[in-house]
Amino acid sequence: QEFGIAHRLDVDTSGALLVGKTLDGYQHLKMAFAHHHVYKEYLCLVHGAVKDTMGEVNLPIAYDDRQNMSYIDRTHGVWANTTYTVLGRYRLKKGKTILTLCRVVIVTGRTHQIRI
After folding, report:
1. 3-state DSSP call for residue 27?
2. Between 57 and which of 26, 36, 62, 82 could a Cys-Cys bridge form, CB atoms 3.0 to 4.6 Å apart?
3. Which residues are catalytic?
């Protein structure tokens, strides 16, 4: 009987870890994620200047198991939806590097979706 970790974040990412302590709890969490009933919001520091203050990305994402990599694929990808709001833009002191702080809401939750 399988129960335990229902959702985790990628390595080097901070946030919540959801664990089903019972089989019923685990199945409930897995179904909630499968049906997109879980609200997932992140704060992301992005390299570069994000042009638009707000936006939505609707692109199909495919995943390559062998390379552990996700990518946009309009033929074989699965629908993915992400919305974002720019909270601030920053330039490193005495540097040319620009960073953008964004609030990102992942609607679907594909593997590596936030990274694409």
Report:
1. helix
2. 82
3. 10
Query: Residue 65: beta bridge partners?
Result: none
SS3 letters across 31-71? HHHHCCCCCEEEEEEEECCCCCCEEEEEEEEEEECCCCEEE
Tell me the DSSP string of 1-13. Answer: ---SEEE-PPTT-
**How do residues 22-57 score in pLDDT, each as one tens digit?**
889 989 998 998 888 888 899 999 999 999 999 999
Q: Which residues contact 96 (CB under 8 A, 6 or more apart)?
A: none
Question: What's the pTM value of the predicted model, to 2 decimals?
Answer: 0.79
Check residue 21 and report its DSSP letter. S
Residue in 62, 49, 61 with CA at minimum distance from that of residue 91: 49
